[in-house]
Design brief:
By secondary structure, the chain is α/β, with parallel strands linked by helices. Helix 1 crosses helix 3 (103-124). Keywords: 4Fe-4S, ATP-binding, DNA damage, DNA repair, DNA-binding, Helicase, Hydrolase, Iron, Iron-sulfur, Isomerase, Metal-binding, Nucleotide-binding.
């Protein structure tokens, strides 16, 4: 009766999740990512809970099931079992009617339920069972049930057929895992020796993986942090049974460094043999999509038509190729006429090391958390330049709405949607009319009238796009932004602030005002600003095997621990610099103030100090300022006073060619000063070793400007973590200072000068947040020129 399976190739079976088995064997036809009113992961859990509550006290949930068939150990968790009806259920939560679900996706749902049914019959010894596919509409709280009775023998046959179709792939994966683990167990360090401090970092990362903990690692520039974190984690992979490593970056330059390090660590495979390590770059949709003007569906995009029919050949080629950076992934996709973005998503489960932006793990819509949970991955994570993670994740859990966005949407809205958008416009205008001063007002809660109007507009747009699933364009983009704002409004708590900013003041309008009465020239912003990402990130950390966050600027460690929601037992290591402290001459310009009120009268002394340093030690320098206006004032003063000193300046919104031209001025025999803004594109991630850069001037503390929002942010952080920490301003500002200073010494042999052009760098609360090896506590006084 059962389709026979060949004996396993190894003693240990290949463990496969029900979802993976069914997606591998049952997915056919078109890729279909048209707009559907899908539920979030949280709504899915809530939906399953609500269905379970309706079933009665005997209802079983999250039933762990497992069986071994030939080389496979098939495992998963069935959503629920109702013993009174002898019915096993698979619950799919959505928004809207289930008849919008594509046929191939519905077939996949049945395949999963049938597989769970076979495993359940095996585990409970039953001959027959009812299977129920339940679609739960989270909006209306209604269920649509598709029910069918199966015999255990029939389900067993279907399971055996799926396992048979997957068995060859499973043997390949078992062989790959064995070869990978054998290679990694004896992996040699790619350099002749560890650099100073690099071994300490590597040992801490290895211990963190062995203990399944979290680690904050502050390590200075020049010790080789990328290799120093990847190497020990790769070595830990076999013994700790780590399925995947994700190397996540906050800057694109970090991805390139990671790929280069992995290329060196991976080595060159022997002729004809597959590489023992599969590496994949995770691309964002906007950088991978070939047809951004088309909906992701076979009726609209040729790369979606027949996607799953052509996927097996592309998947086999990709895993054999093993190295999938951006060009390689696009080449495979082009050869098989597939969407490179969705091909990349399909390949994630077969890679060993994933490289990509932090949004893949931490964004509300990042794909890694869902895959890791569904497929039970042991996922170890490295986060590069982690000092940026607080601000990056704050933005992920923030959203805003401008009046002009609503006006633009109204102009393209169909008649059925226009009244709801007009109501949102009136509610927003009324709220902004009460916003107070032009610089903004922060409210403790979202007013009910606006929240209701937002929900009505979001619902109207959802219904429209449900009826027009092939729509693309600005109105759909507006809907996604509106949906994002609504979700954050619904979850507003002490972790976020709700701000109103009207400019110019918008008049209050009656509810029955015609659309023509809406002012066209007014604008304003309603925004949810996340202050503490921790509540959103804690579940992400808890689900990981281990995590190491590293940067040259992570002090004080409690700042990252508390704002990012890391566990209390998160480790901390502060690696000493790879060069003698005397290689960097750090000086403070005492008596000089760069406060806004003092800038005009201190500008001459500031420029004199820069010129004096340049005359004493000619070479290439970077000068960092708090704003483009301040930068322009200093550059103009230096040009008037010393036209013989070459200078070049960062501009607002510089294109890539202009950035490269700016950096090209730092030639080995060059002389001059490049002016840049602190925290900008040239303040970190820039590598100018040796004579390319011999010094830096930092003419600011980098503190944020005074504003109502900044005041509320400080008050909220003080209320949550206690006053005096400086979490709202001083800590992130001085992290940016240390990052900028890190441009000077890039290798252990470099020497250079750092001028801190503000007397406030002598303050104890400032000195405490700067590297101790700078020696500021004992430094001599250097009056401004």
């Amino acid at each position: 009766m059962n389709a026979p399976l060949p004996p396993p190739a190894t003693d240990a079976p290949y463990s496969v999740a029900v979802r993976t088995l069914c997606e591998f064997t049952a997915k056919q036809g078109d890729l279909d990512r048209r707009f559907t009113p899908s539920a979030t992961a949280l709504e899915g859990l809530l939906g399953q809970g609500l269905v379970a509550q309706r079933r009665g006290p005997d209802y079983e949930t999250e039933i762990a099931l497992e069986a071994t068939l030939g080389p496979l150990r098939v495992r998963g968790r069935a959503d629920g079992y109702d013993p009174r009806r002898r019915c096993l259920e698979e619950i799919k939560t959505l928004r809207g009617p289930p008849d919008e679900i594509p046929a191939n996706r519905r077939r996949l749902h049945w395949a999963q339920l049938q597989t769970y049914g076979a495993l359940f019959c095996r585990a409970r010894g039953v001959d027959e069972i009812a299977l129920s596919l339940v679609y739960f509409d989270i909006a209306s709280q209604t269920e649509t049930e598709l029910r069918q009775v199966y015999g255990a023998a029939e389900l067993e046959t279907l399971l055996a057929q799926r396992c048979q179709a997957f068995s060859a792939w499973a043997r390949q994966e078992l062989a790959h895992r064995a070869a990978r683990d054998a290679a990694l167990a004896g992996l040699a360090f790619p350099e002749p020796a560890f650099r100073p401090g690099q071994r300490d970092l590597a040992a801490a990362v290895y211990r963190t993986a062995r203990q399944r903990h979290r680690l904050l690692a502050q390590a200075p520039t020049g010790i080789g942090k990328t290799v120093g974190t990847l190497y020990p984690l790769l070595r830990a992979m076999p013994a700790e049974r780590i399925d995947k490593i994700a190397f996540l970056t906050c800057k694109n330059t970090g991805r390139l460094a990671a790929l280069e390090a992995l290329h060196n660590l991976r080595g060159t495979p022997s002729a004809g043999a597959p590489a023992p390590l599969r590496v994949q770059l995770m691309l964002a949709k906007e950088e991978a999509c070939v047809h951004p003007d088309k909906a992701c569906h076979g009726d609209a995009c040729p790369l979606a038509r027949g996607f799953y029919d052509r996927l097996p050949a592309a998947r086999a080629q990709a895993v054999a190729q093993a190295w999938l950076d951006g060009p390689a992934l696009r080449a495979v996709a082009a050869q098989h006429q597939l969407c490179p973005y969705y091909l990349g998503q399909e390949l994630l489960r077969w890679a060993d090391v994933l490289v990509g932006d932090v949004h893949h793990l931490f964004d509300p819509h990042g794909q890694l958390p869902g895959l890791a949970q569904a497929l039970d991955w042991q996922l170890a994570v490295l986060v590069d330049e982690a000092h940026n993670l607080v601000e990056r994740t704050r933005r992920m859990y923030s959203a805003q709405l401008r009046l002009r966005q609503i006006d633009t949407a109204l102009r393209s809205a169909p008649p059925a949607v226009a009244p709801a958008l007009a109501g949102l416009r009136r509610a927003a205008a009324q709220l902004l009319g009460e916003a107070g001063p032009p610089e903004g007002t922060v409210l403790g809660r979202v007013p009910e009238g606006f929240a209701q109007a937002l929900q009505t507009a979001t619902g109207a747009l959802a219904e429209h796009f449900q009826q027009q699933p092939l729509s693309v364009g600005t109105l759909l983009d507006f809907f996604f932004e509106l949906q994002r704002l609504q979700r954050l409004v619904d979850t507003l708590g002490e972790h976020s602030l709700f701000e109103l900013q009207a400019s110019p003041p918008t008049p209050t309008l009656p509810d029955d005002a015609p659309l023509a009465a809406l002012p066209a020239d007014g604008d304003g912003v309603l925004a949810v600003h996340n202050v503490v990402p921790a509540p959103f990130l804690r579940p992400r950390w808890a689900a990981l095997h281990s995590a190491t966050l590293f940067s040259a600027t992570l002090a004080p460690p409690d700042f990252a621990r508390q704002l990012l929601g890391l566990p209390d037992d998160t480790g901390w290591i502060d690696v000493p610099p790879a060069f003698p402290p005397e290689h960097l001459c750090v000086q403070v310009a005492d008596g000089l103030s760069t406060r806004y009120a003092h800038r005009r009268r201190s500008l001459q002394a500031l420029v004199d100090t820069m010129a004096r340093q340049f005359d004493a030690h000619p070479g290439n320098y970077l000068a960092f300022f708090s704003s483009f206006d301040y930068l322009a004032q200093a550059a103009a003063q230096l040009a008037r006073q010393r036209p013989d000193i070459p200078q070049w300046c960062q501009q607002r919104r510089m294109p890539e060619e202009a950035r490269l031209a700016f950096l090209a001025r730092f030639a080995p025999q060059g002389r001059g000063i490049g002016f840049a803004v602190l925290g900008g594109v040239f303040a970190e991630g820039v590598d100018l070793p040796g004579p390319l850069l011999i010094g830096a001037f930092i003419a600011t503390l980098g503190l944020p400007p005074v504003s109502p929002l900044q005041t509320h942010l400080r008050e909220r952080l003080d209320a949550l973590f206690g006053p005096g920490h400086g979490y709202a301003d001083r800590v992130p500002a001085l992290q940016r200072v240390v990052q900028a200073a890190g441009r000077v010494l890039r290798t252990p042999d470099d020497r250079g000068w750092l001028w801190l052009l503000d007397q406030r760098y002598r303050a104890p609360e400032v000195t405490a947040l700067l590297p101790a090896w700078w020696g500021l506590a004992d430094a001599a006084t250097h009056p401004a020129a």
